[in-house]
DNA sequence: GATTTAATTGAAAACGTTTTCAGATTGCCG
DNA sequence: CGGCAATCTGAAAACGTTTTCAATTAAATC
């Protein structure tokens, strides 16, 4: 009673050719006489034959599927990257298996392994804290892996990012130039290299160039959530900060709303610059000034890079830096 | 030079048992003597054997992978659903292949077919305008499909939603009770059943109960984007609307900001209620009152339903309605 | 200890493709 | 029209599992 699945063999019989020939026309192999090609194509049409990608994957050792590991799709930043990834994946005939890791190292390792067991042709990984254990798992496989919008200081994985230190440095400099003596640095977990090594470095460099002493009371390590942001106003006031460089848009939105709710005027009394330029920056009032990152493109370029790696094509630059920008909106003077 | 992949056969040899036995222990089959189980397990450990899911899929005709078709992950509404889906998928040992359709019917059909060719065990579909063509494709396959947060008036696919007509009716009634004689209905494309058939119906019913004549000048069909929302203020004022029931959060945020930018006070001069209760509602000022939908749960329940369908378990209710709520925030009086 | 029954195991056939290699056909040239 | 190269085609062996069925071994019964 089962709906009969029709196989390449059925087509071969019906068209009175061999499986090999059918396989050839399905795969667009040139070595088949136009007449036979037509004959086979007709039978395929008539029988409504659809190749079984699993069998194909087993025989060819390619699944045209790539794994995508992301902390949380629900976060606009990652959703944008994911969209870029999917679009160019589609363009190159790949599909993506998307998994949320919650930035949990154990979970990351686990899903990495299930992705590998599913024989994905490549993986794009997002998440900035790469534990030694995870790094080892990365090394163990020869399936290509690229980091998207994520940095690993210690590893040597291909990656695509922007120049976080330069971007932060530039924005903090602007803040200082506008007269802010005490600018806070509000970031996600510092053990993530992107924060602890790069952005913080940019912050420090800007301070140094301006001859301002680094004060660790001004750096606030958070969990990157909106909620946390809303709670930060008192602490920020307590250290006499008059501006903040924030590393996440939702977090920044939280801070800004916390300020507004406490009747601190943004930007008059407190300036805020955020980092990801998700569409949230425009939706909030005042609109948030931001470092602009080509989010979609970071995803897109990552995936493009991955396709090259999967095909053993030469890549000129393993660690791509895309251009960033500075978007002045209403949360800065 | 290729990294040798080790197969079930290698561990069989090494453990001096048959492949069948190895397969049994890998799959937790009870019929194997504890001693042999241990022996095999040890060899697996020693050789670092990982089962090849593709081969397994071919032999067993199950891939433990489900397809997820979504208009755009970058939209918070769908991202939330997707997250719910992935979480329960993981819980039941499935992975998801995530594809963006842009609500484009051709694209939907195309990805549906590639998902099927990849032999997914099931599909959860999001997107409200289901063309006749797509409906036919749905019918052609015996792979189970469930609609998540999406309705198809004409088809008979399993689905999980909330009671959109009741929810809208209730909110519009509240608006009217508070003295609004002219409440606008701002929605996405009306040819999507969720808008054209359900929500609009709730709107009309509320009007009718209140003895107010339906005026189609008050219904605004849009494309559901933030940008469009920001442009709507003049038109809304032109028809003397004093409140709006909006079917999408980003759209609503746009409208609200458009109002604010034109110095129309929300909620004093214009009340706004939105529909999806994404976290955006809290981030915007004033915070938006909303119909609350258990977004994550809609995804989660869809996936759970799908697991039952995939296992041929009986399901009590093919079309699940989850409870909705009404969240009063600051965009209404 | 001989049977009978239950618990373990293994051999081999799927699963639906791709791919290699050799054989068959065709086209072209003098 | 013979011969050689170029073009097409097919047989059969992978690919790495699961699963069926029969055979073997162990346990239980009297």
Describe the structure.
The structure is a homodimer of 333-residue chains. By secondary structure, chain A is α/β, with parallel strands linked by helices. The first copy, chain A, is 45% helix and 15% strand. Chain A is built from 14 helices and 12 strands. Chain A has helices spanning 8-14, 19-26, 34-47, 53-60, 76-91, 105-117, 132-140, 164-177, 193-209, 226-230, 233-238, 249-261, 280-283, 295-310; strands at residues 65-70, 95-100, 122-125, 145-148, 159-162, 183-187, 219-221, 243-246, 271-274, 289-292, 319-322, 325-327. In chain A, the strands form 2 sheets. Chain A has a 6-stranded parallel sheet, with helices on both faces. Chain A has a 6-stranded mixed sheet with strand order 7-6-8-9-10-12, sandwiched between helices. In chain A, helix 1 (8-14) packs across helix 2 (19-26), helix 5 (76-91) crosses helix 14 (295-310) and helix 8 runs parallel beside helix 9 (193-209). At the A-B interface, helix 4, helix 5, strand 2, helix 6 and helix 12 of A face helix 4, helix 5, strand 2, helix 6 and helix 12 of B. Chain A binds a DNA duplex (30 and 30 nucleotides) through helix 2 and helix 4.
SSE topology:
The structure is a homodimer of 333-residue chains.
Chain A lengths: L7 H7 L4 H8 L7 H14 L5 H8 L4 E6 L5 H16 L3 E6 L4 H13 L4 E4 L6 H9 L4 E4 L10 E4 L1 H14 L5 E5 L5 H17 L9 E3 L4 H5 L2 H6 L4 E4 L2 H13 L9 E4 L5 H4 L5 E4 L2 H16 L8 E4 L2 E3 L6
Helix pairs in contact in A: 1-2, 5-14, 8-9
The structure holds a DNA duplex (30 and 30 nucleotides).
């Amino acid at each position: 009673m089962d709906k009969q699945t029709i196989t390449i063999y059925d087509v071969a019989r019906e068209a009175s050719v061999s499986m090999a020939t059918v396989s050839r026309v399905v795969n667009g192999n040139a070595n088949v006489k136009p007449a036979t090609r037509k004959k086979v194509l007709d039978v395929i049409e008539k029988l409504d034959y659809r190749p079984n990608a699993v069998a194909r994957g087993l025989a060819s050792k390619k699944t045209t599927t790539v794994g995508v590991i992301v902390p949380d799709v629900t976060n606009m930043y990652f959703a944008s990257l994911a969209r870029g990834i999917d679009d160019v994946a589609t363009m190159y005939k790949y599909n993506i298996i998307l998994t949320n890791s919650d930035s949990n190292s154990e979970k990351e390792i686990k899903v990495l392994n299930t992705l590998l067991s599913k024989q994905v042709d490549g993986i794009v990984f997002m998440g900035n804290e790469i534990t030694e254990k995870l790094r080892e798992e990365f090394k163990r496989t020869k399936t290509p892996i690229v980091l998207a919008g994520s940095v690993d200081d210690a590893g040597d994985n291909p990656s695509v990012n922007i120049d976080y230190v330069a971007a932060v440095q530039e924005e903090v400099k602007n803040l200082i130039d506008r007269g802010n003596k005490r600018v806070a640095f509000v970031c996600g977990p510092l053990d993530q290299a992107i924060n602890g090594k790069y952005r913080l470095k940019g912050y420090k460099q800007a301070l140094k160039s301006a001859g301002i002493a680094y004060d660790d009371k001004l750096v606030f390590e958070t969990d990157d959530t909106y909620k946390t942001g809303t709670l930060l106003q008192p602490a920020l006031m307590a250290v006499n900060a008059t501006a903040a460089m924030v590393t996440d848009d939702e977090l920044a939105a939280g801070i800004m709303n916390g300020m507004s709710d406490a009747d601190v005027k943004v930007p008059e009394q407190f300036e805020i610059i955020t980092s990801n330029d998700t569409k949230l920056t425009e939706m909030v009032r005042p609109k948030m000034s931001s470092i602009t990152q080509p989010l979609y493109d970071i995803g897109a370029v990552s995936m493009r890079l991955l396709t090259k790696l999967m095909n053993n094509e030469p890549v000129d630059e393993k660690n791509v830096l895309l251009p960033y920008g500075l978007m002045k909106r209403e949360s800065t003077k």
